[in-house]
Amino acid sequence: MIVSNPNGANSPGRKSANAPYQFEADLSLKRLRPALDAAWERLQVEPADVHEFELRLTEHWRPLFALLMHLYGSRYDFFYHLEQILLTAAEAWAARSPVLREQDHHRINEPDWFSSQKVVGGALYVDLFSENLGKLRQYIGYFKELGLTYLHLMPLFAVRPGDNDGGYAISNYRSVDPRLGTVEDLRLLADELRAAGIVLVLDFVFNHTSEDHQWALQAQAGDPEFQRYYHIYPDREIPDQYERTLREIFPTVRRGNFTWHDGMQQWVWTTFNSFQWDLNYSNPAVFRAMLEEMFFIANTGVDMLRLDAVAFIWKQMGTGCENLPEAHMLIQAFNRLSSIATPGMLFKSEAIVHPDDVVKYIGERECQVSYNPTLMALLWESLATRNVGLLSRSLSHRHQLPPRTAWVNYLRCHDDIGWTFDDADAAAVGINGFDHRNFLNRFYTGQFEGSFARGVPFQENLQTGDMRISGTMASLAGLEQAIEEDSEELKELAIRRMLLLQGITLSIGGIPLLYLGEEWGMLNDYDFVKDPAKAGDTRWIHRPKMQWHYLDELDDHIASGNGSIRSRIFLSLQRLIALRQSLPALAGQQMKLVDLGNPHVLCFVRMHEAHRLIVIANFSEYPQTIAGNLLRTAGLGRFFEDVISGDTIASSEPHEMESYQIMWMQRI
Ligand code: GLC
Ligand code: GLC
C-alpha cells in the first residue's frame, strides 16, 4: 500500500497543480513572452536549445504557476516575481554546460536510472577524508574499488568562522570554503567523477543561511528589504506566540527557537544553531534568490541535490512549523523549475521526522529519493532488542514507494540517531514508544546492563527526557567495547553485527549509502572536544578523520593472508557491495516480508522482473533454526544457494543459521 503519495489526490500540491488557474497561467506566460524572448537574445542561446527549454516549459508551466499562485498570488508584486523566476530558470539553462545538457537527455530517457542495483552511495567530509577537493580526485580509484557509484560530499561552501555546524552555516553559496579549494576544483572533480561513472550529490542548505551571509549582513545593517529575507521581530510578542507550538531541535544550544541579535536589537528565528538564520519563504524574493543559488550549485555538475532540513521551511502561527503543506509546495515548485532548467538533476529529501511525514516528501514531482530514517532507527532497535517485531511491522506498510522514487538506506550519517518510529506501530507489537525510546537511549549510551554499544548522548533535553545518539557504526555495534576488552569473541560478534546491518541496507530496496569510514569499522573519535569549534556538538564523535594507514594494512593482509579486523571489515563489505551489484533482483524497491515465525529472524523476498532473492537475517547472537518449507513457498524452489556463504540449502530440511548471520538466497 502506498501510504501517502504527495502526488495523490489529497495533496495540496496536486490540487493546486491541476485544474485551477490554467487561463491565468497561459495569459501570464503570454505576457512574459517578450521578456523571455529578450533573454534568449541577450544570452545568445541557440534556437535548438531554446526549443528544448520551451518544450519543458510548456510541460511544467501550468502546475508551476498554480503552486506559485498559491504561495505568492496575493502579493502586490506577484507578477514581478513570476517574471524574475522565469528569467532565472532561462539563465540557468543558458549557463548549463554541453556535457550536462547531454546528460540531461540521457536522464530524461531513463528517469529511474537510480533504481539500478548498481547504484551504491558513500558520503564524506572533504577535509576529514582527503584534506581538499584537489586531493579528493586522487581517491576516485578508491571509490571505484569499493563499488561506489554515488558520492555525497558534505557541505563545502564558504562558511562563517569558528563553529559552522559541519558546513551547514553557509555564508556564500557561490564560493567553496577556501580551505577545501575553489569552485573550479569542484567542477573539475564533478567532471572526473562523471567520467568514472560516479554521480555527485551536494547539499542545498535552503532552510537557513549563516548570520554572515550577505543577506543577513544587509539585514543587520538595517536594510528593510533584507530584513524581510528572515523572520525578525522587535520584541518577544510574536516569538512567544510561535513558541507555544514549536519543538526545540537543539535544546542544549539555546532554549527556544529565537536568538536575540544585539546589533539589530531584534529577535531572529534560528531553528538550529543561533548563527543559522531561518529564511522567510513567505517572501517570494527569498524563493527567487535561493532558486538562483540552487541553479548555480546544479550547474557545477551536481546529479542530486540533498534538500537539507526540508521539514522546517514554512512557518505558520499555531502549528509546529514542520511539514506544512506549503513546505511541500515550495519543494514542488523547485522541482518544476529544476525539471525545466536542469532536468537531469534529482532531489533527495532530508526529513528526519515521523514516518508518516517522511513519505510525504517523496514523489516524482517532489523529492525522487529520500533518506529512510525509520529503517535506520529500527535496524539499530532490532540489534538492541534481538527482536524484529517492530521493524517488520513498520516495513510491512511503510517500505513501498510510488514509481520512480527510491529510499536511501543508511545506518549512520554525519547526524545523530533519533528514534523516529511511529508509536502506533510500536503499540501494535505491544511496545510503549516512550519507554522504548528510553531503553534505546540507555542501551546505545552503554548504560543498559549487557549493552555492547558505546554511543554518547546528543541534545539531551532534561525537561522532556528526549535524547538522540551519536557514535560511529562500529562503536555502536560493539567493536569499541570488544577492542577495549581485548576479546576475540566480542570482536567477532561486533563484525557480524555490522555486516548484518549492511547486508540489509544493501538488499532491502533502494540506494544503500555508506558514511565513509564504515568500510573500516572506524571507532568514535573522542578528540573532537579539543577543537573549540566542535566541542559543543557530540556529532563530531562520529565524523573521524580518515585513517589511510588502514589501506596499507589491507595490502599487507592481501599479501600475507593474515587479516586484521580492519581489512576483514573492508573486504567483507566490498564483497557484499559487489554481490549486490551483480544481483538484478535487488534493483527497484519491490519487497515482500515473509514471516518465518521466529522473532529474531527477518525475512523478505526481493523481486525485480523475473528475478528473486530471499534475504534472511538473524538478529540474535544465538543460532536460530528456520523451517525449510517456508522458503519453498517464498522462493518457489527446492534448492537455494546463499550467495554470501556459498552454501546450498535444501528446503526439505530445517536450516540452522549462525549468530547474526545474513543469507541472500537464490533458487538453484
Ligand atoms: C540537517 C543536517 C544537520 C544540520 C541541520 C541544520 O539536519 O543534516 O547536520 O545540523 O540540518 O542545517
Ligand atoms: C534534522 C533533524 C534532527 C537532526 C538534526 C540535525 O533536521 O530533524 O533529527 O538530528 O536536524 O542534528
From TrEMBL:
Residues 123-555 form the Glycosyl hydrolase family 13 catalytic domain. One of its GO terms (biological process) is carbohydrate metabolic process. GO terms for molecular function: amylosucrase activity. SMART domains: Aamy. Keywords: Glycosyltransferase, Transferase. Gene3D superfamilies: 1.10.1740.10, Glycosidases, Golgi alpha-mannosidase II, Oligo-1,6-glucosidase, Domain 2. Its EC number is 2.4.1.4. It comes from the Bacteria. It is an enzyme of class 2 (transferase). This is Amylosucrase. It comes from Rosistilla ulvae. The lineage of its organism: Bacteria, Pseudomonadati, Planctomycetota, Planctomycetia, Pirellulales.
